[in-house]
Amino acid sequence: MPSVDAVLVRLNAQFERPNNTPTIETPKPTQPYYDARYPYHLDTQVAPSGTCTPSSNSTNPSPSSTLSSGATLSHEQGYGLKHFVDFPSFDGIGNLGSKAKPFLLANEISQHRRNYARYQLPFVDFSPPEAQSQGAQHGEPPISKEQTELGPPPRPLNRLPPRVNSRKAWTDAFENATKSRDHEVMVFGARAIVNFGGSWTDDEMLDLARAFVWGASDRSTLNIHDHFAKFATIVRQTFSTLRPNDGLGEKFSTSLRNAAIGTFLHCWNIEDSHKAIIQVRFPTPNQTQFVLSSLAHCNFIGCLYKAHFISRTDTIGCVRVLFQNTSVIEHLVAVRHIIFQAGMQLWRESDDPEAEMKEFTGHLVNAAKGIPCDRAVLPQRPPYFKTVKASVDYITTGLDEFSASMKPGYVSHNLITGPERPYRIR
Questions:
Q1: Secondary structure (3-state) at 218
Q2: Which of 341, 352, 342, 336 shows the shortest CA–CA distance to 394?
Q3: Count of CA atoms in the C-beta half-sphere (13 A) of 319
Q4: Which residues, 6+ apart, have CB-to-CB distance to 333 below 8 Å?
Q5: Is the whole model's pTM more than 0.70, yes or no?
Q6: What pLDDT, in 10s, does the model give residues 121-158?
Q7: pLDDT of 371 above 70
Q8: Rounded distance, CA 250 to CA 74, Å?
């Protein structure tokens, strides 16, 4: 039988930690993927043309902050628990003036705070199904000899702890209003949200902003262009009307802007998130869902610009992030969603729209050179996004339409041929 001193030594070795070892150590890799080849400042770098080298399998996640196994994004109960976590306050991605030349000036993205822990999506297990089933069969990891000598492991709980109800007092009103296209129903829902919210602390306002981000990132709303942005405008007006002395309207606008931009960066910027979208040879259903939701969130970014929740500088900054991280065709699709949803106002606010469109086209072509072999994540795409060339041509055609619409006597092509039938990526 071992002596008491020997037992104490073993216990100390088992439980004590050296003073110079941190409790939690999660270093951030500086180059997590070989695809991360673009620096921050697009204006000083030209994207190199890649080769047709197959990429290694990566841990691309399963937006707007998004997915668990096979589930589509929705703003219904439980969606946030599965797909999102909290957001911190966010300093923005640039402070250029609204009239500045955004594609000529380097947006100082690297100066904003990098505390993205609360922007991240929850962990999703992308291991093979057989590995997951094997882990479920074995239950617990093997017990070491030292643990055996110290006694049996604790008995597992017979049942899980009770789940905390995360539904807010305004959740039902929010869901009813966002499911309706009736303006009166939306106004009634906005008043109910404001009245049920109580004191509306920073965390409570952030919960409301997250609900908008989650709902707009639902892939089923991909072609319901700006419903959530319109409802957000009604909620902002209701805050200002019912609580004029509390500044809640501006507080809501700031929270929604921070949540939307933070989620966008988490989904698309490799420098700030190891889960950002890159090329995957064999995407899982979770990864496909994540890409679809991230694209839907890009639509929401453009809609928020039109609704004056985010500035032109922030909107152009999001486009720049996509250019800097372009590695698959979906990055070009995301660019298209933002600028087409933002509409003509995005270019009218420029001092020289024609010159800026021309410069934008140059950056688009350079970014597209970083997509070798027409690689993409989504296996099924519309014809105008099947190849890199088709994607660039589709975007530049839209820019030509924007440019022509600024000239007097312009007649929309849609008035002659009819509007293009919307395509929903499945």
A1: coil
A2: 336
A3: 23
A4: 295, 381, 385, 391, 425
A5: no
A6: 333 333 344 444 444 454 545 545 554 455 555 554 44
A7: yes
A8: 26
